Amino acid sequence: MQAYQYLKSSLNTEDIRERSKEIIYSIQMRRRETVFLQLERKEPKAVKPKPSDILPSRSSNGYSIIMPELFDSEFVILKMEADRFAGDTKGLVRAYKLFEFVYKNMKYNENWNKKPIVNLSEAIEKREGVCKEMALTLYMLLASNDFDVGYVKGYLISDNGEGDGHAWVRLRLYNMNYLIDPTNNIFVPYDLDFVRKHYEEVDPDIKRQ
Question: pLDDT per residue over 62-88, tens digit each?
Fold first, then answer.
């Protein structure tokens, strides 16, 4: 947790939010004609979890998560609230509103669960969890809105090189990849030095039933 706490305290999140708003405004104004200068980068190691998939923990004291169905009652309730929050927005603006909804409505609590395996539906019901619950909840909301989205696991790296396990979301839109981290309130293009410096991906684990 040290890297997470360090990054959380050292980041100027207001600058990140303003940058996100500028990107959204630019796309609103120019639509698909917007041209982005992208640096060479491999595609993010994102996966698309399906209902009943199990995402195991990499740590010895962690827990695994089971993905619920899209018609799971707790997710249906959450989706109705999120869609109402997003209104009639579309494209990147809608994706940002759904991200904002998760950030505002899910509480970070690393002690919320004591079981070795848990259904994400329980975290959605309680509206709390850690990075993986927040990322997977946002993943489900974006996927249910027909976005090209993936779940990413890796490490959050502090300026001194320390890393902690972390999870976030990759959104592919307008031929561009976005890193969305609802735990830290970050929504930025993948090809930023900030991302290269603080986010390190690993090959994700999924157990299909």
Answer: 899 999 999 999 999 999 999 999 999
